[in-house]
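Ticket #4471: structure export looks truncated?
Reporter: QA, pipeline team
Priority: medium

Steps to reproduce: submit the single chain below to the structure queue and open the exported record.
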Amino acid sequence: MKYALFGINTGASAAPDTMKAVAIAAEQAGFESLWTGEHVVLPDPQVPPSPAAPLTPMVHPSTALSFLAAVTTTIKLGTGITLLAQRNAVVLAKEMASLDYLSKGRLIFGIGAGYLKSEFDALGVNFHERGARTDEYINAMRELWTSDAPSFSGQFVNFEGIQSRPKPAQPGGPDIVVGGTSASAYRRAVCQCQGWYGFALDFEGAAKALAGLADAAAKYERPASLGPLEISITPRMKTTRVEATRWAEMGVGRLILLQGGGSKDALLSDLQASAEALMD
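Actual output as written to the record:
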């Protein structure tokens, strides 16, 4: 089992000194990766399904992870998740290639289609096109990351006769991990991504999601180049070694643990307690 931390860029961890301290401590404790959350803007006032109060600080994912790449050496850096359809695919491909290059191949590119219409409205992006944009952007970004003569012709992205360097440090680009519990997300995971990410799930919810992924795998052909689909889960509940064993038995390969709240000292104490409880 790989163990990771979620929310390295938000809440109390948004403070630079706290973000840095937690990242260094996580690397020293043996955590595999650090994961950001993301919303470019939040509805004010907060209304469902918005996940956070309007004034919750969220440092931009690639900015936070670039900062952390400079103060760590081995821990992987995950976007959990980047809302792909809200971006310009060519600009985002450059942004993520640069992050992977500067971190010497430590990026895990977590993505999602998004679900807050008010956020899309503020960005001037058609909310109802988000799924189609997400599918197309994955392919366009991989073309920029891998081709020596990149070209792409799609509904939303078109380019040829260009170059975008440096390429990512990882051959083929960073692994792409898609979040979501819709039929489209399951298809996207099977057909286009190296991994799938389920956020804030209990065992029952995770079992339903894994069944959905299995259904998608039966309907769609998975490219051999993607390898086995890796399953990441952020558990809804506190995780002990007993729960971790149960997650592993379900086929989960990575647990991305929610950080607690409070001060820097409280976060560091919780991190150490989790490491002692879960890792040999």
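Status: closed, not a bug. The export was complete when the record was re-opened. Leaving a note from the reviewer for reference: The chain has one domain: 2-62+79-278.
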